[in-house]
Amino acid sequence: MISIYDTLARKVSQIESSGSQVTVYCCGPTVYRDAHVGNLRTFLLADLIHRALIQQGAQVNFIQNITDVGHMSEDVQGEDKMLQQAHLEKRDPFEIARAYEAGFHNDLQRLNILPANAYPRASETINLMQKYITKLIDGGFAYATAAGSVYFDSQSFETYGAISGNRLDSLKPGHRYEFTDEGDKRFHADWALWKAAGSRTEMIWDSPWGSGFPGWHIECTAMSLSLLDNRIDVHVGGIDLRFPHHENERAQSNSIINSEAVGMWVHGEHLLFEGRKMSKSSGNVVLLQDVIDRGLDPLALRLCLLENRYRAQMDLTWAAMEAANSTLRRWRNSMATWGSADSATEDAEVASAIKKDLDTPRAIVRLRAIEKDLQILAQDKRAIFLHADQVLGLELTRAVIDKPLSPEQASLLSQRASARELKNWSQSDLLRDELLAQGISISDGPAGQSWSWI
Question: What is the reported pTM?
Fold first, then answer.
């Protein structure tokens, strides 16, 4: 089977199934905006685990939630992200949720990410959340207040902080993902399971405690326990979710079933872009559509991410994506020249890299060596690449579009090369855009510019 780093155990451990299937849960998007490439890196991590398990013959039940209510905004304290975006766009919040949810699924498809068995929506599982909240109250792990809110009693869970290393007595009030009007809770580290509506009039539901809406953390607990029969073998998310989301989720889930609900917690590290953290304020948020608009294959982003360890911080650059795009094109051309057989053969070193903590960079280095090895027959190279691609998901058998350039297009390419030599970057960019509009992608590397049909 596959071994991977478990954040809770703080070591690389083998994935173990609790039954006939390996159950995997990945925290999905908050659908108030398009997912950026940092979000997509986390979803790719879940896909790698999913694909690697399938390649080893495992049956996988993979669930990924859609958060369309209950997530606090980092920018406006105390306001739900969905409602904040609804006010900005002057649209119904659920209309916004469905639009961005569709964009999320489109991005997954373009990145060749295998679909989950289910994508439950938070807004459609309110009754389920209320059922689990009631169970927590009955078990003495949560309490309702006179104002109509319900809080988890953080001090009732003895091992709180085991994932993140945070101690209850060291936590300070006012974490950015919590509500500001919580003067009715008993201890500052308690968190809302259900929040009284107060002056809020949208996205609210009836409950045994009064009109209100769910807290963020209870959503994943309710959906994962319900859909995966109280046992999640692998729980995946970005490192930013380790605290408080996963810490709180673990406390809730374990308290409900009175045992450890998650076999292992797996986290993907942060993604920088051009040396800086991506943020709206910095204006450097990159979407998958931006990659495509630049004339790059979306799977060039996938390859670029695979060339870095999932649990190491990564600095993504346009230059790296352009290089990955060229590699992808070369490999697809090579696959066509290596034959047409569909048989796949495992390479021991590639397989070992995948099985040992998803070391995709080592697997790709090995593939590059196989590509250049004159002692390996062409059909054997193809078979090895086909087997590796079952996990890497780069669609290496996809045909490369090749047709002759028109004289005008050849002239534009020559003009652009001259503009770059003269460091006339504005002219170079204009010519790139003109070529892109005609279906020609440009990549710039140490050897100069190269081009391919989109």
Answer: 0.87
